[in-house]
Amino acid sequence: MINKNANLNEGIREKEIRLVSDEGSEIISTRAALDMAIEKDMDLVMISPGANPPVCRIMDYNKFLYEQSKKQKEMKKNQKIVDLKEIRLSPTIEDHDIDVKANNAKRFLENEDKVKVTIRFRGRQNANTNVGYKVMQDFVDRIGEAGVVEKPAKLEGNNMIMIMAPKKQ
């Protein structure tokens, strides 16, 4: 892969280079390769400066950079950015409230977003963290087939955290 800081034309300071073309490769002097590039109205680009002798190629460098930027923009356009949505529960949450939050989580998972489910324990609730595990399991049961548990429920300080990911298609 050629980087943007590659040595070009007169910037190549080596005496001899390996010139790679469609016909094959040959070792010639830098001056001769530069003359060939000027004759073709193109650039002499150093591809691999670490090789012995360095590898160069004759190409239209600006056109190459343009095509590389187009490829990168296309790749960036095709990638999906996954957001992490958070849903907060409590150990004393009612059934209807769990239904509402589970429906929101299903909607997030259908949009290919991850869901972080958090339960905060306060005061005396810290003594009964098993209630939190039951609430988390009930929440997962209500989500059903919409998502899978990526990171199971784990107690971290006063919070219990679980991460769910969308189900693979």
Note down, in words, how this protein is organized.
The structure is a single chain. By secondary structure, this protein is an alpha/beta fold. The chain has two domains: 9-75, Translation initiation factor 3 (IF-3), N-terminal domain (Ubiquitin-like (UB roll), Roll); 84-166, 2-Layer Sandwich (Translation Initiation Factor IF3), CATH 3.30.110.10. 35% of the residues lie in helices and 32% in strands. The protein is built from four helices and eight strands; from the N terminus they run ββαββαβαβαββ. It has helices at 30-39, 61-78, 95-110, 129-143; strands at residues 16-21, 24-29, 43-48, 55-59, 84-89, 114-120, 147-156, 159-166. The strands form two sheets. Strands 2-1-4-3 form a four-stranded mixed beta sheet. α3 (95-110) links the parallel β5 and β6. α3 (95-110) packs across α4 (129-143). The chain is rod-shaped. The model has no long low-confidence stretch (mean pLDDT 89). This is Translation initiation factor IF-3. Belongs to the IF-3 family. Pfam families: IF3_C (PF00707), IF3_N (PF05198). It is found in: Cytoplasm. GO terms for molecular function: translation initiation factor activity.
What's the SSE blueprint?
Blueprint: E1 16-21, E2 24-29, H1 30-39, E3 43-48, E4 55-59, H2 61-78, E5 84-89, H3 95-110, E6 114-120, H4 129-143, E7 147-156, E8 159-166
Parallel strand pairs: 1-4, 5-6
Antiparallel strand pairs: 1-2, 3-4, 6-8, 7-8
**What would CATH call the homologous superfamily of the largest domain?**
Translation initiation factor 3 (IF-3), C-terminal domain
Number of domains: 2
Strand order of the largest sheet: 2-1-4-3
Low-confidence stretches at least 5 residues in length (pLDDT < 50)? Answer: none
Shape: rod-shaped
CATH architecture of the largest domain: 2-Layer Sandwich
Question: What string gives the helices and strands in order?
Answer: EEHEEHEHEHEE
- Secondary-structure-based class equals alpha/beta
The CATH topology of the largest domain corresponds to Translation Initiation Factor IF3
Mean pLDDT: 89
Q: Major sheet: size, sense and barrel closure?
A: 4 strands, mixed
Which band does the percent of strand residues land in?
Answer: 25-35%
- Distinct helical segment count: 4
The radius of gyration over CA amounts to 30 Å
> How many angstroms separate the termini?
34 Å
* Helical residue percent band: 25-40%
State the total count of DSSP E strands.
8
CATH C-level of the largest domain: Alpha Beta
Main location: cytoplasm
Pfam family, one: IF3_N
GO molecular function: translation initiation factor activity
Subunit structure: Monomer.
